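Here is an idea for our session: we take a single protein and study its fold together. Start from the sequence, derive the backbone structure tokens from it, and show both lines together. Once you have written the record down, we can walk along the chain together:
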Amino acid sequence: MNNNIYPWHNSAWEQLLAMRAKLPQALLVHGPEGIGKLALAEQFAQLLLCEATGARQAPCGACEGCRWFLVGTHPDLRRLEPEALALLRPSAHEPDENAPTAAKAQKPSTEIKIDQVRSLDAFLSLRSHRGRQRVILVHPAEEMNLNSANALLKGLEEPQGQAHFILVSHRPARLLPTIRSRCVALPVALPDLAAAGGWLKARKVPDWESWLAYAGGAPLRALGYASDAGEPVARLLKALQANDLEA
């Protein structure tokens, strides 16, 4: 198993590998937030774009396709995600000299906008740059507003050669039923306690059992909570135990 995905994804990864023989045009990877679904989808997208020869169980990480994927410049990959999420990627911090000044001053959107979906038209009408599949990764898919969702539906209704959509969703019920009906669903479940606990303990998360329970069993959310709020919460608990109401 490739180490770029989480250990509790073994079963889901095997299902993805089995799909390669008859790859659906649209795949919906869904499950609770905080379990690493995006990493799973990204690794599958990288595998589809990997140019290493032979049957592989994971992307090689060394070919041109993998290198371009890892730095975010692969010509056969498009990402649809809210601006607020896109800005968290390292490549997003490089200044865009062509961006309008007014656009730079706007607050980043938390939605996937219709203009982002419409920008796929040219991508879908072209042949693959590398002679392989083209991949559109949508995350989180439920953040499309109604207009952008309808625009994406048009692309799903009109298949374009070797173009494949991978939708990642925390709340698939918020997607249009017509979008869900055109996707092959891959549910990803919460990891069991042993897998989640082992992963958190390896990262030296103190009181990981409490944080995991607070996160509803989602280990990535538990890690985020412990990192962001661990020290303040520890101080509060200590004050409560000491009956220090002023603190």
Notes: Residues 69 and 92 are 15 Å apart (CA to CA).
